[in-house]
Amino acid sequence: MLDIAFIRENSALVKQGMLNKGEKDNSAVDKAIAKDEEWRNLVTKLDKLRADSNTKAKKIGELMGQGKKEDAQKIIKETSKSKEDIKNLEQEISTVREELDNLLYRIPNVPDESVPVGKTEENNEVFSTWGEPGKKDWRKPHWDIAAEKNWIDFDRGSKVTGAGFPFYLGKMAKLQRALINFFIDEASEAGYLEMQTPYFINENSARGTGQIPDKEDMMYEIQRDEFFLIPTGEVPVTNFRRDEILSESDLPTKYAAHTPCWRREAGSYGKDVRGLNRLHQFDKVELVNIVHPEESDQELEALRDHAESLLKKLNLPYRTLLMCTGDMGFTQTKKYDLEVWSPGQERWLEVSSCSNFGSFQARRMQLRFKDGSGKIEMLHTLNGSGLALPRVVAAILETYQTESGDVSVPDALQSYFKENVL
RNA sequence: GGAGAGAUGGCUGAGUGGUCGAAAGCGCUCCCCUGCUAAGGGAGUAUACCCCGAAAGGGGUAUCGAGGGUUCGAAUCCCUCUCUCUCCGCCA
Question: Cα(A186)–Cα(A386) distance, rounded to whole angstroms?
Fold first, then answer.
C-alpha cells in the first residue's frame, strides 16, 4: 500500500497513476484523504481523553498512598463517565481506521515515469530482442516431442491429481534438475543467498506480498490449517524479513530460492494451457532483492540483466518487454517481462517477470532499515524469476530438436547434465 | 496427539495491581580522564501514531508474544489464540 501522507501530498499523481493502470474509478484517493482526516481528528480527541484519564488515575494512586480514601473515591466517580466516552470513541476509531485501510488497499502503486502509458498488452514496449526467432518448418511443438519420447505424462498426472499436474520422466526430470542447479549457481555467482523455503504460507504473508486482498483466488488453500500453497517463491522469500529493521550495512540483501509454485489458473483454456504452456504446478527459481530506496531503479536493470543472461547462456532467443501501465499490475512501479521464443509454436512464452515494487510491499510488511543517522525508512523490494522452468523446457525441446528427432543439450547445461543428447 | 513450563527493550534478566516504557548487567554511540595496549568516569541508546512548530524542538497516546476482559488504574489478575522449551507417544 501507499503511504497516506504521500497520497495526501501527491493526490493528483496517485489519481493519474490509477487511471493509467486501467482503474475506471479513482475516487478512492479523495475518499482516503477525507477518511484520514476524520481518523486523525478522532485520534486527537481520544488521546486527550486518555491523557486526562491517566492524570486522574495517577492522582488516585497518590491519594490512596497517602490514605486519603474519600478524596480518591470522589475522583473515581468522575472518571466513570469518561471511561464510557473512551470506549465509544475507540469503537468509532477502529471502524474508521478499517474503512481507511480498505480504501488504501484499493489504491495501486504509482507507475514509474519511464513506464509507457497504455491500456493493454498491445501497448507494451519491446525493450530488446536477442537471437533469431526460428521458423517452425519441420519442427514439432514440445508436447509432441515429449509424447514420442515418453518424457512427460499428462494423462497419469490427471489421474493422480488433475489436469495441469504432469509427471516428468527420465531425462525430462533430469533436465529440470540440471536447470535448477544451473539457475541457482548463476544466482549465487551474482551475489544471491541460496535458500530453501516453506511451501505453505499463512495469511499474514499472503497479505504482505499482496496476494490478499483480492487475489486469493489464484492460490490453493489448506483450510483445515489455514495455509495457502505458495503461488510463487516471492511470498516466502520476501516475507522472510517481514517486520524487521535492517541496518544499512545489510543492503542490498538478495535471496534466491527454487520452489514449486501452485496456481489455480481459473479461467485459462485453449492453446494457452497446451503442453507446458500453463500448469497448476511448476518449478521456478525466484530472485528477491531488498534494497536501499535510492537503488531500486538500477537494481531492477541489474535483475533484468541477470535473468536475460540465463537465456543467453542457454542460447535461447528471447525478447524483453517493458510493460505498459495498463498491463503491469497493481503493486509494481515498473516491470519487465522476458519472453522466450517457442519455434515449435511460433510464439513468445513468458519465462520471467522482473518487477520493482518501490516501498509498496515493504510498507505492508513493515520492512524497514535504519540509516547512518538513525532514521528509519521503508526499504524497496524487487523480484524476478530466474527462471520459470516449464516454458524454458518447452523452448529447449523445440529449439534444440534435430531433424532426426533427437534433442541436444544446451552447452551451458552439459556440465550439469553430463550428456549432450537428451 | 498427551502432560508440564515459559514468552519483558539489540542481548541476558528483574519486576505479581498505582509515580513502570519498565531495575541491573552486557552490547552499541558520544564525551572526558588516563596513557602503554588494557582499564576508569559520565551521558545517551525501542517502535508507531496524534497535536503544536518554518525548523530545532516540545507536548500527548499506545505498545512488556497476539487479541479480548476485570479495574479509577494491568508487564502484574481472568479468558482465547500463537509460538518456544522439557517429558511421553509417533515419525522421514
Answer: 9
